[in-house]
Amino acid sequence: MSAGDWLKRNLFSSVWQTLLTVITAAVLLRFFWFVLDWGVINAVWFTSDPEVCRAATGACWAVIAEKHRPMLFGLYPYDEHWRLVLMMAIYLGTVVFSLMPRNWNLRLLVPLWCVAAVSIGVLMFGGVLGLRYVPTSEWGGLPLTMLLFTGTVLFGMPVAVLLALGRRAPLPVARGVSVVFIEALRGVPLITILFVAVNVFPLFLPAGVQVDKLLRITIGIAIFFACYQAEVIRGGLQAVPRGQYEAAASLSLTYWQTTTRIILPQALRICLPAITNHIIAAMKNTSFVIIIGLFDILTATTAVMQDPLWRKFYVEAYLFVAAVYLFFGYALSLYARKVEKWIASGRI
Q: Where is the ABC transmembrane type-1 domain (predicted)?
């Protein structure tokens, strides 16, 4: 089919479809011209003088160049931002290396992540090697968002698998506990869980015992994530054909051998798109920490834009934050699609 035939069949096959196509094209052209005119042609890209931006008719991208450090790094001491840049390089390098199938070896990944975790901890906390000590209350920006997200996934995924298995367990007690846990926490807003982690949980601790606020929040988000992810994994477990269980029984495999070697790998493959969806949602859910006073990248940007000299250009600042979320979310989505192709081809 030629391009002309395709256009005629799909866009101009009738009078009404032709009219709808023309109207839609006109609206899209108008929108794209506005974006080009406002965001590129008449935009101000570099200036330290906000009055230059006020006199312009386009976007003021200079606000990002002027405020990018507090937006990206929050309350972290200004002179120590180099530590966060190095920390993000180590973190992203370790993640990218770990996601390559040829590197999926526990003997390689466990030591790598241990070294990376220690390095990140030293850079973030300091207090050793001549580095200034920085408490978690001063952490912020993109590094905090990434740490919250990583902690949520690393802690939440194993809990989600256990809850999903528990909900289908033959033992009534395990099944009942899993059902109550999942349904109770799924019925509570994430904000409520954060408030409980910050304000209520410390009341139950013995006198003199303290748990770091950031750790409490990470565990709270991770448990919330695990309850939703558990239902996704349970759907995958239910989709595994009954014959797989019967084949495992014929080989005299135990429950845990059947689950870990046969059933669970198939279930995770089946529900991979839904798992990816919840992982991306978990990254965006980290922005809820604005409610309890942590300065992730969104909260830091909101605080920075209180500057009266640059407050008018909040749209450009939030578009920058949106681009950061879009970049990481789209990267996760692309990787998940790649994994699906690897599975279909038998590579993994």
A: 142-336
